[in-house]
User: What shape does this take?
Amino acid sequence: MSHRKKFESEPAHGIRPANGTLSVVARGAAIDPRNRFAASQPITWMMRIGYVARGIVFLIVGAFALLAASGLGTHPHGARDALESLFQKPFGGYFLWFLATGLACFAGWRFMQAVFDSEQFGNSFYGLARRAVLTGSGVFYVALAVASARITFAERRMDEDQSAREWTAWVMAQPLGRAIIALIGAGFAAVAIGLVVKAVREPYRHQRQVPPTKRIWADVLGSFGTLTRAVVFLLVGCFLTIAAYDSNSREAVSLAGVLRAMQEQAHGGVLLAIAALGLLAFGLFEILEAWRTPPRQPN
Assistant: This one.
């Protein structure tokens, strides 16, 4: 009997006793900053605002591309060129500041994903590579947020293609510049391959708390949009690699240049329309992603 009382008086490891005190395991989980990060309401809203802003950017670029494919517009635009066109519309300045704020939120979310490993990629070579990609994405969206805000008070000197060529020329003028450009092109191609794998695997299928019918549509939009982005990344990488091989910075292009290259091909209107629909699909998918449940807590 004394042994039974002694056993009942000692709580099992990791279980909250009746008097309300926490065990060592529970206290550790409660103070783990990564767990607080995953459950933070402000961070959840930052994630949602960021995904919506990113989705809006893709919707805008896709809409301009679709107008160009249908003959209602002259040529497709990249992100910054499209946003500059919208700045000329009523309330365009307010819209750009809202979008810049949302893109900054998305960049912050990407940095947090990389630092806190909220997607549980781990510290293996593959995991660190995935987290490095998240960091690169964060840097890109910081630049896009700054560029969006800058449109409201400073006139741009050149379009996206001219900017890409000027930047490529500057890099190639440095020691080992051509090799660096070739490596960047290979990096774009590697990202494209990763996007294809992501589209095939559909890792987001089980992460959204939505009804099955809506989940099917979300999967279709996500896969189609992701494959479209893969094609764009691959073509940007190819153009950069060709520029490095020929030592000609004029062969480098931006997103706008890739879309225009599609438009100039035989049946270019059809190719551009498919790309436009893919960009629109990804924009809608990103807005759906904004309302998914937050990522699970890191281990």
Observations:
- Residues 41-289 form one domain.
- The chain has one domain: 41-289.
- The two ends are 40 Å apart (CA to CA).
- The chain has a mean pLDDT of 80.
